[in-house]
Design a protein that fits this description.
The chain is of the alpha/beta class. Helices cover 40% and strands 16% of the residues. It is globular and about 45 Å long. The protein starts with 13 loop residues before the first helix and ends in an 8-residue tail after the last strand.
Length: 200
């Protein structure tokens, strides 16, 4: 809607959230949230209050440019939400594209991220993951992180990797197989993929 953006701190009204979630629930059962702030709580409350048939992968937004304390506020918020909405939140994602080399909010290395992941994993009952691009999960250093998560949340966009739409499915299948071979003990879920409706 005009005047709303996920990055500017504005909050969508619960009425608008309900309208959007009703549309989504016609075709989807699982949605993903990226941060653990007030907007996330509003969305979860709308799902709960209206008994919508939706389950949520709750996100914790980490930023390598932010202080440890600010990142920990997101972690603590995510833990609180996972406990308060345990019937709705089926998994928690700690960080989004925080280790792939092209990320503007990346962390310097995997060990810097592990305290956040380990704290969440020890505090909640739901499975915990970190969501990142295949160009991180195919690197040797990804194995250290894999040892600290319950499953791998994989991003792979054929469009942004110079594939034609005709080859998109084959390329995506190839990436899945590649990461499956790299991490044979882990379940792998595509958490971001698809084709844009227009070029940004």
């Amino acid at each position: 809607r005009d005047g709303e953006s996920p990055g500017d701190g504005s909050l969508t009204s619960k009425e608008n959230i309900l309208e959007d979630l009703k549309i989504l629930s016609n075709n989807f059962r699982f949605i993903r949230l990226y941060g653990s702030g007030k907007q996330a709580r509003n969305i979860l409350e709308v799902i709960q209050e209206n008994k919508l048939p939706l389950k949520v992968m709750q996100g914790i937004w980490l930023d390598g440019r932010e202080s440890f304390e600010n990142n920990m506020k997101q972690v603590d918020g995510g833990i609180e939400l996972a406990r308060d909405f345990r019937d709705i939140i089926f998994a928690v994602n700690v960080g989004n594209e925080i280790l792939v080399d092209w990320s503007v909010h990346r962390f310097d290395d995997v060990p810097t991220v592990l305290p956040f992941v380990d704290k969440v994993r020890s505090a909640i009952a739901q499975p915990v993951t970190v969501s990142d691009d295949y160009n991180f999960w195919n690197k040797p250093e990804s194995h250290l992180l894999a040892d600290h998560v319950d499953f791998i949340c994989l991003h792979a966009y054929a469009f942004w990797n110079n594939q034609t739409i005709k080859n998109a499915i084959n390329w995506t299948q190839f990436i899945y197989k590649q990461i499956s071979i790299e991490h044979p003990k882990h379940q792998i879920a595509f958490c971001e993929s698809g084709w844009p409706t227009n070029r940004i």
